[in-house]
Amino acid sequence: MTETDSSWPFDVWLRIAVKRFGLSPSEFWSLPLRDWLVLMSDAKPATLDRTRLEDLMKVFPDLTSEGDQNEVGK
Questions:
Q1: Cross-referenced InterPro entries, in alphabetical order (predicted)?
Q2: What secondary structure, in 3-state letters, does the chain show?
């Protein structure tokens, strides 16, 4: 395996650790791999399921240009 051929993207992870999580490089390198993987799994955006979409539609209904609620989907 060469330096450019790596199955683990440590250079990308280091950039994420510094830019997104505000860790110093030494803090990143001292993290156990298991802890880092947990951080990364929480960093992914949550998916929007049907129930959450319906909740948002109730809170923020579509409005027509006259200000009435849009009847689409009812």
A1: Phage_TAC_6 (IPR019056)
A2: CCCCCCCCCHHHHHHHHHHCCCCCHHHHHHCCHHHHHHHHHHHCCCCCCHHHHHHHHHHCCCECCCCCECCCCC
